[in-house]
């Protein structure tokens, strides 16, 4: 893909001695779902799939941008002062220019191999990668933590997506062969060795189209804020739901609606599962890790209610296969991807059988990816 990006840049803008190249990974969250905006722990990894950029300054106040994924739209050109959104992929560029105070024109070609709407953070990969590239062109020494926080502002303030910090953080700070246990409240983190021994991590894409801003993602976030308000009115002043570590029943009794009780239960138990999962990886207890993944999915299915028929079909089909020790949805839900831990010797047969069940049940095929765990955003040659 990098070579394709280089070729397209030359085709559109000619040979440029100042052109630079960058790579920004996608991510998969092993466990800790819908926890980042609740101030708890998540356990994501950067993956080898991602977004590539060829970019250089153009000595004007214009941006000229071309995406291989959206080639039918051709090259899009606009002025640095044009912050008006038009529901195109270039809205992200306008948000970056505004939040990062970019004051120079540039030419950029983008190409990636993250499946769109897969739940593997194609948009965060794009946003974080371009932000890193532009900061590099400015010779700014912004920290990777601050870069992640500013990219989150692009999503929240400009794009209108109420996401947490996880995606941007792991894309900025990923490390080959390691997951990150991230405290989303204080942004403390530690690298956790990601060695699955005789098991492989399989990602399965439902291939169901979804739009994060149009889904129930924001609704779940609002429900969690409603729970915080109810607890505050009952004398409990908390910054986040994940501040609660014990006496769960005491808090549950204060919530009047069944749906709020279920949301609360998921958040608290998922946070604890994430801490346990990191310990499992440290100890090499992959079988226990698998049990935690399955428990996570059941909680997301029954308590947080963000899975849907497609994801449930994938996960429960995986769990019926020989050699599968755990599976769950990953990402925001409502489509996107599921992950499964499967004995390497049984992966191909499991994929074949899951594909058959899913296609019969849903009416179209899933896609499968076996990923490697890679580094965070970086300049490449």
Structure description:
- The chain folds into two domains: 2-194 and 375-380, Ribosomal Protein S5, domain 2; 199-370, Alpha-Beta Plaits.
- The mean pLDDT is 95.
- The chain has 381 residues and is of the alpha+beta class.
- The strands form three sheets. A six-stranded mixed β-sheet has the order 5-4-6-3-1-13, sandwiched between helices.
- The chain has eleven helices and 13 strands.
In the CATH hierarchy, the architecture of the largest domain is: 2-Layer Sandwich
What does the main sheet amount to?
6 strands, mixed
Strand fraction equals 15-25%
Percentage of residues in helical conformation? 40-55%
| Count of helix runs | 11
CATH topology title of the largest domain: Ribosomal Protein S5, domain 2
Biggest β-sheet: strands ordered side by side in the sheet: 5-4-6-3-1-13
- Average residue pLDDT: 95
What's the shape? globular
Distance between the termini: 13 Å
Tell me the series of helices and strands, N- to C-terminal: HEEEEEHEHHHEEEHHHHHEEHEE
């Amino acid at each position: 893909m990098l070579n394709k990006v280089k070729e397209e840049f030359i085709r559109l803008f000619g040979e440029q001695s100042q052109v630079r190249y960058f790579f920004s990974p996608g991510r998969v969250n092993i466990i800790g779902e819908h926890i980042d905006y609740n101030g708890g722990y998540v356990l994501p990894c950067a993956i080898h799939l991602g977004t590539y950029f060829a970019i250089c300054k153009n000595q004007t106040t214009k941006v000229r941008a071309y995406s291989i994924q959206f080639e039918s739209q051709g090259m899009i050109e606009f002025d640095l002062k044009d912050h008006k959104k038009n529901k195109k992929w270039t809205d992200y560029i306008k948000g970056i220019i505004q939040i990062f105070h970019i004051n120079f024109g540039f030419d950029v070609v983008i190409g990636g191999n993250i499946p769109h709407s897969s739940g593997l953070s194609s948009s965060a990969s794009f946003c974080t990668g371009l932000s890193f590239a532009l900061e590099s062109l400015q010779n700014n020494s912004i920290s990777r933590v601050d870069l992640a926080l500013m990219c989150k502002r692009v999503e929240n303030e400009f794009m209108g997506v109420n996401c947490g910090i996880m995606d941007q953080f792991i894309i900025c700070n990923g490390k080959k062969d390691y997951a990150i246990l991230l405290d989303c409240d204080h942004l403390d983190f530690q690298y956790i060795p990601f060695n699955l021994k005789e098991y492989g991590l399989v990602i399965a894409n439902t291939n169901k189209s979804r739009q994060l801003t149009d889904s129930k993602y924001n609704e779940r976030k609002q429900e969690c804020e409603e729970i915080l308000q109810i607890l505050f009115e009952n004398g409990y002043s908390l910054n986040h739901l994940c501040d609660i570590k014990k006496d769960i029943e005491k808090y549950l009794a204060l919530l009047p609606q069944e749906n709020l009780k279920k949301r609360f239960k998921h958040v608290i138990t998922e946070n604890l599962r994430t801490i346990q999962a990191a310990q499992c990886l440290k100890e090499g207890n992959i079988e226990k890790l698998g049990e935690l993944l399955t428990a996570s999915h059941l909680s997301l299915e029954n308590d947080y209610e963000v899975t849907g028929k497609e994801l449930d079909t994938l996960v429960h089909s995986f769990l019926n296969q020989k050699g599968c020790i755990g599976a769950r949805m990953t990402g925001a839900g409502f489509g996107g991807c599921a992950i499964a831990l499967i004995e390497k010797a049984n992966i191909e047969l499991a994929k074949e059988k899951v594909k058959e069940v899913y296609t019969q049940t849903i009416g179209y095929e899933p896609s499968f990816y076996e990923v490697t765990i890679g580094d965070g955003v970086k300049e490449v040659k």
